[in-house]
Design brief:
95 residues, mainly alpha, rod-shaped
Protein backbone atom coordinates (compact mmCIF):
# COMPACT_ATOMS: atom_id res chain seq x y z
CA UNK A 1 0.00 0.00 0.00
CA UNK A 2 1.38 3.37 -1.00
CA UNK A 3 0.63 6.57 0.91
CA UNK A 4 0.97 10.00 -0.60
CA UNK A 5 1.83 12.64 1.99
CA UNK A 6 0.33 16.05 1.22
CA UNK A 7 -0.51 19.20 3.13
CA UNK A 8 -4.22 18.41 2.74
CA UNK A 9 -3.77 14.97 4.25
CA UNK A 10 -1.75 16.31 7.18
CA UNK A 11 -4.32 19.02 7.90
CA UNK A 12 -7.12 16.45 7.67
CA UNK A 13 -5.38 14.24 10.23
CA UNK A 14 -4.82 17.23 12.54
CA UNK A 15 -8.48 18.34 12.31
CA UNK A 16 -9.84 14.82 12.88
CA UNK A 17 -7.42 14.28 15.77
CA UNK A 18 -8.37 17.60 17.37
CA UNK A 19 -12.05 16.75 17.07
CA UNK A 20 -11.58 13.32 18.66
CA UNK A 21 -9.50 14.81 21.49
CA UNK A 22 -12.05 17.58 22.14
CA UNK A 23 -14.96 15.14 22.22
CA UNK A 24 -12.98 12.82 24.51
CA UNK A 25 -12.15 15.64 26.90
CA UNK A 26 -15.76 16.83 26.77
CA UNK A 27 -17.01 13.33 27.70
CA UNK A 28 -14.57 12.55 30.52
CA UNK A 29 -14.20 16.02 31.96
CA UNK A 30 -17.26 18.08 31.09
CA UNK A 31 -16.50 21.80 31.02
CA UNK A 32 -17.70 23.90 33.88
CA UNK A 33 -17.44 27.56 34.62
CA UNK A 34 -19.17 30.82 33.96
CA UNK A 35 -21.23 31.53 30.85
CA UNK A 36 -18.38 33.27 29.01
CA UNK A 37 -16.11 30.23 29.40
CA UNK A 38 -18.87 27.86 28.28
CA UNK A 39 -19.61 30.04 25.25
CA UNK A 40 -15.91 29.97 24.28
CA UNK A 41 -15.68 26.18 24.70
CA UNK A 42 -18.89 25.67 22.69
CA UNK A 43 -17.58 27.92 19.91
CA UNK A 44 -14.30 25.99 19.81
CA UNK A 45 -16.11 22.66 19.57
CA UNK A 46 -18.38 24.00 16.81
CA UNK A 47 -15.44 25.30 14.77
CA UNK A 48 -13.46 22.06 15.06
CA UNK A 49 -16.65 20.04 14.43
CA UNK A 50 -17.36 21.93 11.21
CA UNK A 51 -13.75 21.33 10.15
CA UNK A 52 -14.26 17.63 10.88
CA UNK A 53 -17.37 17.57 8.69
CA UNK A 54 -15.49 19.36 5.90
CA UNK A 55 -12.77 16.69 6.01
CA UNK A 56 -15.37 13.92 5.83
CA UNK A 57 -17.15 15.60 2.94
CA UNK A 58 -13.90 16.01 1.00
CA UNK A 59 -12.56 12.50 1.45
CA UNK A 60 -15.87 10.64 1.17
CA UNK A 61 -17.90 13.07 -0.93
CA UNK A 62 -17.85 14.32 -4.49
CA UNK A 63 -14.42 15.99 -4.23
CA UNK A 64 -12.75 12.61 -3.83
CA UNK A 65 -14.57 11.21 -6.87
CA UNK A 66 -13.71 14.29 -8.89
CA UNK A 67 -10.05 13.94 -7.98
CA UNK A 68 -10.10 10.26 -8.99
CA UNK A 69 -11.75 11.20 -12.29
CA UNK A 70 -9.07 13.82 -13.01
CA UNK A 71 -6.30 11.30 -12.30
CA UNK A 72 -7.95 8.73 -14.60
CA UNK A 73 -8.28 11.24 -17.43
CA UNK A 74 -4.66 12.28 -16.99
CA UNK A 75 -3.51 8.66 -17.05
CA UNK A 76 -5.59 7.96 -20.17
CA UNK A 77 -4.14 11.02 -21.92
CA UNK A 78 -0.60 9.74 -21.32
CA UNK A 79 -1.34 6.20 -22.58
CA UNK A 80 -0.90 5.72 -26.33
CA UNK A 81 -4.18 4.80 -27.98
CA UNK A 82 -4.59 2.03 -30.55
CA UNK A 83 -5.05 3.53 -34.00
CA UNK A 84 -7.65 2.16 -36.40
CA UNK A 85 -6.55 1.54 -39.97
CA UNK A 86 -7.67 4.27 -42.38
CA UNK A 87 -10.12 1.94 -44.17
CA UNK A 88 -11.75 0.59 -40.98
CA UNK A 89 -15.53 0.51 -40.94
CA UNK A 90 -17.03 1.56 -37.66
CA UNK A 91 -20.53 0.16 -37.13
CA UNK A 92 -23.24 2.71 -36.31
CA UNK A 93 -24.42 2.90 -32.74
CA UNK A 94 -28.04 3.03 -31.67
CA UNK A 95 -28.99 5.71 -29.15
Amino acid sequence: MRFHISAQGILAVVVVGAFIILVGIWMWRPPSGDQATMALVNALVMVVGSGFMTVLNYYFGSSSGSKDKDETISRMAQTPQQQLPPNAIIPPTNP
